Amino acid sequence: MKQTLKELLIDREARLKNKTFIFWENDEVSYSKLLDTAKRIASSLAGKGLNQDDKVCIWLQNRPEFIYAMFGCAFSGTVLVPINTQFKQEEAQYIIDNSEARLLITQPEFYEMAARIKANCPKLKEIVVVDQAPSGTTPFSELYNPAKPVEREIVEDDIAGIIYTSGTTGFPKGAVLTHKNYLTNALQIAEAAKMTEADRFLCILPLFHVNGQLVTVLGPLYAGANMILTKGFSPKDFLARLACYQATAFSGVPTVYAILNSLPDAEQYDLSKLRFCICGAAPMPVEVFETFERKYKAFILEGYGLSEGTCASSINPLDGTRKIGSIGTPLKGQEMKIVDDKGQEVKSGVVGEIVVQGENVMKEYYRNPQATEETLKGGWLHTGDLGYQDPDGYFFIVGRKKEMIIRGGENIYPKEIEEVLYKHPGVLDAAVVGLPDKVWGEEVGAFIVPKPGQTMTEPEIIEYCKERIAKYKCPRQVFFRDTLPKTATGKIQKRKILDQFLEGKNK
Predict the structure, then answer these.
(1) Quick one: which of 14, 84, 215, 427 has the fewest CB in 10 Å?
(2) Would you state the CATH architecture of domain 181-400?
(3) pLDDT digits 0-9 by tens, 458-472
(4) Which residues does 48 contact at the CB level (< 8 Å), separation at least 6?
């Protein structure tokens, strides 16, 4: 196995040369062009005085320049720090300040916010802008023309990236990932998906997220395959793009599959090259899963992972037994188990916290030793996710540890109730949260987005649930919404739902 991202790209370019790596709109980027561009950017970063381990923030929507900068950092020894493109000024400023970034690469849409951020972050020395750079900034094109080539020795334990968690339960924490973390997980993903040079992976998820980076960039690179880069998920042209490029795979989140289930004209597209689809970032409701496979005759691989584990830790096997509703079994080279609050492994079928171990697990949280100690205690990554393992070794998630509802001493797992809600023919999206209650401590609250044209009532939903689950688990209050707040990767932000509810209640 190659030891660094730099070595990986050099090796693949030597073998594949002019083969296309990135399909982007009307352009094609070969392995050779990616290597040449990475070297040029690396030399430019060094020429600007950036040393190894200096941080480079990238605040870009999906486009080739993101990947160029990603490998420019890998070749220069600087550290990639992606920023969520949905972030506003204060959120982006927190990451730039916390990471101690010296350089920011962004686009015109974010420039005004970036300029204000720079005034508040003394360590940020320069802003580089793609496309038309405003006066006083550096155009990204200048990074292609370094003063002189610079070569630096990079080793596997060097930091490659800092990925800030979504911050659904507080301020984001920066997961520090080494070159070894990235390469280990890229290899695990490529092997689990049986990627080959014939594959074409469609990238619809944001590159600032590890799923986009690992599953649709580094995995295909490892396999010597192609990737098809898009600006994001668009229901309007998604199926046409899959068919046009003859994509063999894509990675999505549950929301993507729910939307695809509602498209009326899927049959007109030739998707015969599609080998499988990957679902991650959040648990997929079984009803959405089964509907998609019936409609598209496609094979879904549901997996599980988190930024602190680089990306993926388990997946249902491509060949062999697949258990719908489970997150499968650990990827080769990783261990997973279920533990109680004392860290002791529990028996099969008993709910506890999922913990992970392997060379894909992060080095630490950046500048946060207390959180690092809590999360990596005992040499295991404590995920905060609750689940159980069945007798066959398959893992199932029941919810987040901090999302578990305790009603009158009874533990209630929101995912179980959400699975029931998603089976209702009128429900498009659903989230279950614990609402403060003076008598019971917490009560079950359901927030629902109806499908277009569907209407339903609170009593109807409550009665529907009573017919299917124990009474104490059933929602006591039901709220209907046009949308639910989500992260950029489609994960429903339950903390935000609760905050909005409490804010409205106190007005």
Answers:
(1) 14
(2) 3-Layer(aba) Sandwich (3.40)
(3) 999 999 999 988 788
(4) 103, 126
